[in-house]
Amino acid sequence: MSTPIAFGTDGWRAVIAEDFTFANVRAVALSVARFLNGHGLASRKLVVGYDTRFGSDRFAEAVAEVATAAGVPVSLADRFCPTPAVSYNVLARHAGGAIIVTSSHNPASWNGIKYKPDYAGSASPEVITELEAPLEEILRGQIPRMPLDAARSAGLFETFDPRTPYLTRLAQMVDLRALRGAGLNVAVDSMYGAGQSYLAELLSGGKSAVTELHAENNPLFPDIHAPEPIARNLDLLSKTMQEPFDPLPPPAAGSRPAFDVGIATDGDADRLGVMDERGVFVDQLQVFALLTYYFLEVRGERGPIVRSVTTTRMVDRLGEIYGVPVHETAVGFKYLGPKMMEEDALLGGEESGGYGFRGHVPERDGILAGLYFLDLMARTGKRPSELLQQLYAKVGPHYYDRSDVEFDQQQRSAILERLSAAKPAELAGLAVTSTSTIDGFLYNLEGGGWLLIRFSGTEPLMRVYCEVPSEDLVPKVLAAGKQLAGIG
After folding, report:
1. Each residue of 352-395: pLDDT tens digit?
2. Which residue, 333, 321, 274, is CA-closest to 293?
3. Which CATH architecture has domain 399-485?
4. DSSP class per residue in 168-211
5. Which CATH number fits domain 12-162: 3.30.428.10, 3.40.120.10, 3.60.21.10, 3.40.50.300?
């Protein structure tokens, strides 16, 4: 028997009612309970949170029923909340770990589970291996459950407010008084997700104004393909950015200012998307570089930077300019987070729009990242397009794109063989200066560019990424990558 449960870069995800069933959720819950008991962490409690997806609250209760039956005390969030809020509450409550029922940025038919160990970051590969190991045996047997009323009476179950401690923490990380007084006009798209109303509350009470989009519960995520903050899913935000508005409180008589910036968070609010003042998407690599510039130049802080292999080399150039090291990891915060802790990194980032920061949790936080981006604007007095020009003046222009190519799964081995055997001296006329297989097939190119080819762990997709200093080189380098693989 093979288990239908497999953890990916950050948790287990599956289609609701197919593989994401109560039986499978309970199996994961029991495996986590055994893990906590086996490592002496059970007495510190298991925090359980959930997002706005269909059935997430009921799946979270199912987790609590199984964990308490296994003798693990549970603190269940009393409302939906962002993943980083749950992660922070692991630290605030000195918990043994957390389960979050969420499928992050996946389409509406999906749900999932993320497990956060006691350090409040993504589960490491070693932890994931330990959680997956007993699942086959668990699924063959009966899984004990304790009604939550009985668990409460036994002192094994409580509900808690996840919002207030998290908001308090964010207020310690960012000067909210300055942001409220900055007079920024911000459009926020929470994409029907768990981050709705957080930024509006944090920025209320001053000259800055927030207009919220998709700030209601609708697990179908209508009008968007999926709650992922990338350009194709942010049509309404882009259109809103291009239309003037009357903010509250009202501006001086006769003025109708446009929005200064658009901020978007994904389904569980651990990723950030940014739209500039013209309604043009600022891609995730540009945002990470701007956040790095913010910490190094604007705030004058120093410390190592950690980035995934799929994100911008602009941070490498900034590292050279400001004299700080930059560390490269495989894709996913299960690699980035531990490296950030090991190096006491100033910040870390990945191509998906996930960014983590020193002094917080070693994990992505889309809301905190959004606050930092707004603080960058407030401190410099510049809008996103102007900030990009300022960044490019420092590091030179960089252009990025990614192409996803479907292939017949039977051809996977042949594609891998071709890539393993390929030793190109140049790609699209650019000399290959070095290569790496840390996560896929990476080719560093002259002039600071790069090409990466890697495979999806769950789908028959080959992803081809590139970043180069000239816009007209982007399609040529991507085409050269596909040619190397003999596909597309």
Report:
1. 999 999 999 999 999 999 999 999 999 999 999 999 999 999 99
2. 321
3. 2-Layer Sandwich (3.30)
4. HHHHHHS-HHHHHTT--EEEEE-TTSTTTTHHHHHH-SSS-EEE
5. 3.40.120.10
